[in-house]
């Protein structure tokens, strides 16, 4: 591999499940155009543009006796579909997966209709062109009217068929919360491959946030603080809202920061991605 290497690490790999029966030690390298997996006896190369699926988590059936967590990369080579497995119980490998998602998706030209729905009401918004980019816990659409969808605010997404400029096209329909409203954004990609990878990105990021939230226990007061901040309350309003004194609010805020649900910003406390997801999980249980 030549210049521009963005990932280079060694781990257990199965470069091609069609040719390898069990993992071997291998070196994984990636630049902006391709991934190379080098073992003692072989060298497997595939272009990032040939990746059509990417997943992080449990290994496929039949391989779980070898791996705990894996990055599974499905790609095409000489007209055939191949699958590579890369041992994933490592922050370096998670970063590789993030870079591969970005390599496949970043800069893709898409058409976006936002909001296509507000609640159950269909809007008269039209589709506009934008450039797609993946950011930490967000999908961003750069255009004259930029848009960002926070993954933790997504409650549902599916592939649908819609008419765009007189032609029926497949779209990714994403239901999420935006400025306190439940809205639906529709995204059109000309590549089925990239649409599949974008859907996988949303599913992977959401699943990871759910796992993080599952390890966090919250008191009723902490949930009320999160929902209050999400609903626009200031730190100064929280004491009266909860019926407690200011020192108790400070304690609760510090506790939520330690649990990774709040982050300190220039404007005060802000919900983290996991904190936003926690609100979605509990908002119906709170009557503020």
Describe the protein's topology.
Layout (H helix, E strand, L loop, with lengths): L6 E8 L9 E7 L3 E6 L3 E5 L3 E8 L10 E9 L2 E8 L3 H15 L2 E11 L2 E2 L5 E8 L2 E5 L4 E4 L3 E11 L2 E12 L2 E8 L3 H23 L5 H11 L4 H8 L3 H13 L3 E4 L2 E4 L1 H10 L6
Antiparallel strand pairs: 1-2, 1-7, 2-3, 3-4, 5-6, 6-7, 8-9, 8-10, 8-15, 10-11, 11-12, 13-14, 14-15, 16-17
Helix pairs in contact: 2-6, 3-4, 3-5, 3-6
Which H/E pattern describes the elements?
EEEEEEEHEEEEEEEEHHHHEEH
Compute the gyration radius: what is it? Answer: 22 Å
Helix content: 25-40%
Structural class: alpha+beta
Superfamily (CATH H level) name of the largest domain: Pleckstrin-homology domain (PH domain)/Phosphotyrosine-binding domain (PTB)
How many domains is the backbone divided into? Answer: 3
Q: Estimate the strand proportion.
A: 35-45%
Low-confidence stretches: none
Mind telling me which CATH architecture of the largest domain this is? Roll
CATH topology of the largest domain: PH-domain like
């Amino acid at each position: 591999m030549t210049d521009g290497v963005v990932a280079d690490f060694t781990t257990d790999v199965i470069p091609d499940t069609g040719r390898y029966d069990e993992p071997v030690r291998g070196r994984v390298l990636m630049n902006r155009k391709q991934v190379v997996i080098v073992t003692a006896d072989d060298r497997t190369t595939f272009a990032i543009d040939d990746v059509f699926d990417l997943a992080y988590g449990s290994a496929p059936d039949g391989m779980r006796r070898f791996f705990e967590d894996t990055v599974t990369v499905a790609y095409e080579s000489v007209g055939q579909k191949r699958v590579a497995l890369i041992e994933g119980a490592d922050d370096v490998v998670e970063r590789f997966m993030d870079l591969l998602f970005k390599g496949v998706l970043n800069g893709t030209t898409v058409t976006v209709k936002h909001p296509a729905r507000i609640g159950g009401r269909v809007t008269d918004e039209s589709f506009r062109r934008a450039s797609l980019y993946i950011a930490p816990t967000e999908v961003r659409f750069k255009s004259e009217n930029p848009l960002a969808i926070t993954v933790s605010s997504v409650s549902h997404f599916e592939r649908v068929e819609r008419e765009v400029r007189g032609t029926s096209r497949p779209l990714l329909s994403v239901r999420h919360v935006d400025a306190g409203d439940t809205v639906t954004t529709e995204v059109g990609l000309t590549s089925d491959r990239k649409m599949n990878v974008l859907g996988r990105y949303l599913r992977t990021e959401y699943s990871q946030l759910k796992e993080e939230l599952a390890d966090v226990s919250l008191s009723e007061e902490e949930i009320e603080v999160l929902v209050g901040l999400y609903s626009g309350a200031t730190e100064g309003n929280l004491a009266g809202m909860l019926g407690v004194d200011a020192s108790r609010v400070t304690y609760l805020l510090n506790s939520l920061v330690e649990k990774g649900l709040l982050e300190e910003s220039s404007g005060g406390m802000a919900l983290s991605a996991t904190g936003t997801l926690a609100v979605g999980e509990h908002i119906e249980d709170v009557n503020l």
